[in-house]
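Please check this record.
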Amino acid sequence: MHLVVDSTDLKVYGEGEWKAIHTLQKTEIPQIMTLWTIQSIAVWKILQREKVLFADQRYSEVLFFDAYRWMVKQMERRIESESETTSLPLWAWYQWEGKRRKPDLRRSAHLPKGQCGVRIEFEQSDKGVLLSDFELWHYVLNYWYLPRNVADGEAFEAELSEHNLSFFEMKPLPVRAYHQRIEDSWDRIFDLDWTEEEISDPFSKKSIQATFWRLHLDQIRDVHFFTAR
């Protein structure tokens, strides 16, 4: 899903300390933000050796390539920093679990159980980072329509049903107009101030992911080794 590993990581700031990264993000985000990424020991060694890390598409899940490519297009549109490669972005956490800033290594699923890894704390300029709602990102991964509210979602599914279509069964939808409506709905994952009952949590409760193009060794502020549970 990300780099050479399918894990990711980030940090949280208080609700008044942010600066918009793009037009949809209204909460102020610091010019220099602290992020966390969880990677395998193998990836950590690559970073130490090369002094800079890029995502390696060979280690990403083929099933989600369309979602990753969509994210690449969004990054090209929404942030100033450009990719020096044709690779996928790296993933990190800006806000792991609501008010919890960094990932809790006592929790499971950061890496496969028993695998040794590292939690890397680093700094990045906001110009090179795109933030999005991690939970809503699953709408993109699964090719689901992200409704404005429950009624909107029910209405769209009913409209599709009239044409014997379903985004749960057809990926992508064969009708271009409907496919575009689904993709356009995903823009809402970048609006970190958007709250909607049963769909989008308030900012203080969100898990917020960060995507960026590269990680330099000299951006690292702390490294914590652990064994995944």
About this structure: The domain at 32-135+195-227 is CATH 3.20.170 (ADP-ribosylation fold).
